[in-house]
Amino acid sequence: MTRAALFDVDGTLVDTNHLHVVTWWEAFRQSGHDVTMHDIHRAIGLGSDDLVEHLLGEDRDRDEDEKLAAAHTALYGAYFERLPPLDGARDLLRELASRGWRIVLATSAGGPELKALRRAIDADDVIEGVASADDVSEGKPAPDPVHRALELAGAEPSDAVFVGDTVWDMKAARSADVRAVALLTGGIARADLEDAGAQAVYGDPAELLSHLDTSVFAQLERTD
């Protein structure tokens, strides 16, 4: 039996959500759009195309999408060399790997951004694959990223756990029939995460690590 521990990255393993909020806010502002940081925060976790549509609507000038995404990438890129890992992220991945879990990341990041995130996590020795936005036709909350991560891990949905920090992560896991665990590190309320499908909620990776023996991970280990 192959057990898979699937992880979102932004806001789950690396403390980047609020950096994304500020840089998206600035990208919208530069193009003349007044979008509140609150609304942007609620959209973090969506891929860039879906985020723009979610915030500006279907009747927006779609020719502007690429400019907005490029502006966000340029602004966010200024932080690539100092992205902070969340407390316990590296140790959590390594502990799960030592217990036989296959670690796969599921993220909308790619290219230099993904390299910067992996550098921040500093656990490439236990990360067995990455399902990025380039690998799927639809991003979260569609189940495609989770399905791709399962393929990379070689695991069935019943033998996997997905850890994320947004309602989009929880909905994607639920749609893929994978157990979902949420962290509060993305700034989303516990009730919202539970309503979206989280079976358990922890403060951060360190808290999940400290409760690993009573978590859904341990429950699955006992079914072997």
UniProtKB/TrEMBL annotation:
<dbReference type="InterPro" id="IPR006439">
    <property type="entry name" value="HAD-SF_hydro_IA"/>
</dbReference>
<protein>
    <submittedName>
        <fullName>Haloacid dehalogenase</fullName>
    </submittedName>
</protein>
<dbReference type="InterPro" id="IPR023198">
    <property type="entry name" value="PGP-like_dom2"/>
</dbReference>
<dbReference type="InterPro" id="IPR050155">
    <property type="entry name" value="HAD-like_hydrolase_sf"/>
</dbReference>
<dbReference type="InterPro" id="IPR036412">
    <property type="entry name" value="HAD-like_sf"/>
</dbReference>
<dbReference type="InterPro" id="IPR023214">
    <property type="entry name" value="HAD_sf"/>
</dbReference>
<dbReference type="Pfam" id="PF00702">
    <property type="entry name" value="Hydrolase"/>
</dbReference>
